[in-house]
Amino acid sequence: MNNQTTITLNNGTKIPQFGLGVFQIEGNEATKKAVLEALAQGYRHIDTAHAYQNERGVGAGIKESGLAREEVWITSKLWPSDYGTAKTTIAIDKMLQRLDTDYIDLLLLHQQFGAYKEAWKEMELAVASGKVKAIGLSNFESNRLEEILQIATIQPAVLQVECHPYYQQSGLKKRIEPFGIALESWYPLGHANEDLLNEPIFQQLAKKYAKTNAQIILRWHIQSGNIVFPRSTKQNHIQENIDIFDFALSNDEMAEINQLDQNKRFFTLSLAEQEAQLSQFIPED
Ligand SMILES: NC(=O)c1ccc[n+]([C@@H]2O[C@H](COP(=O)([O-])OP(=O)(O)OC[C@H]3O[C@@H](n4cnc5c(N)ncnc54)[C@H](OP(=O)(O)O)[C@@H]3O)[C@@H](O)[C@H]2O)c1
Question: In this predicted model, what pLDDT tens digit does every residue of 67-109 receive, in sequence order?
Fold first, then answer.
């Protein structure tokens, strides 16, 4: 699929704008299968995390695909239980082993709590030693984003957050734009929310372009400049989701979809609740 688009990050590397997310794909076998299917369909970008407990499946899928390592973009994320001076470097080495690779294209701090400043500094060291090419943040929507920007020697390349037509993140985009930080959308299909998927505007445009509602939403992300990696384990959805590079929404159609923005998140925990709840979880190595 040569017509896939890329985004040039603020460190000069080019990330495929579209990929496969593997959140909630249970186990390494199921993950390997989804990754193999996606790579066979032309995907060249996989988004995983230590917390998903399936990095080994990602590494195995890429190896088994026969593609050269540099043809596939791997993003993974560090969990707060691994934040800390020296601790984070050890965690990165273990992650490289799980992914069965000698470098990670993009490494993110998964959550905005714990010893995140120390972890950022360790990630900068990993860039210097070549273990990681680009570094970024996930879920840093509070002023902890600015705390990182102040201490960073290497500015974050991306910020990965919930983003879909009901929650378009226009305010956050304004905050990150001066730093050249790209926005990555999680829950790009609203985590398969029926109300979102069945919005009349998507039905109408799907009919016009002979696409599905999900494809219209994904195309809107691409034209909005978002990096996007919908998750699926179904062959037909994996195939369908990447088939969005042969048509374009008009400016008026983009504007009409932009009207759906209603500040509606599907993940609604406050920062304090996230900190209390998520810090209970410690991923296995
Ligand atoms: N950084 C973070 O904290 C964070 C949080 C959440 C997610 N993420 C990342 O973002 C990725 C995507 O998020 P997500 O998986 O939660 O939500 P999502 O991609 O918005 O939605 C996934 C759901 O949509 C369904 N689906 C996929 N393609 C479809 C299609 N063409 N038509 C209809 N339904 C379709 C999938 O079911 P089927 O399997 O049946 O296709 C699945 O139930 C994750 O995998 C992960 O990489 C990051």
Answer: 999 999 999 999 999 999 999 999 999 999 999 999 999 999 9
> Crossing angle for the helix pair 213-223 and 251-258, nearest 10 degrees?
100
Look at the domain 13-274 and name its fold.
TIM Barrel (3.20.20)
DSSP 3-state of 233: coil
For ligand 1, whether the C-beta of 187 sits within 6 Å is yes
pLDDT tens-digit map of 128-186 = 999 999 999 999 999 999 999 999 999 999 999 999 999 999 999 999 999 999 999 99
Specify which residues 78 forms β-bridges with: 109
d(CA 48, CA 30): 13
pTM (predicted TM-score): 0.98
Q: Report how far residue 231's alpha carbon sits from residue 248's, in angstroms, rounded to the nearest whole number.
A: 22
86, two tokens: 């020296």
Where along the chain do its domains lie? 13-274
- Give the mutation target among 17, 20, 22, 23 for probing the ligand 1 site: most ligand atoms within 8 A of CB: 23
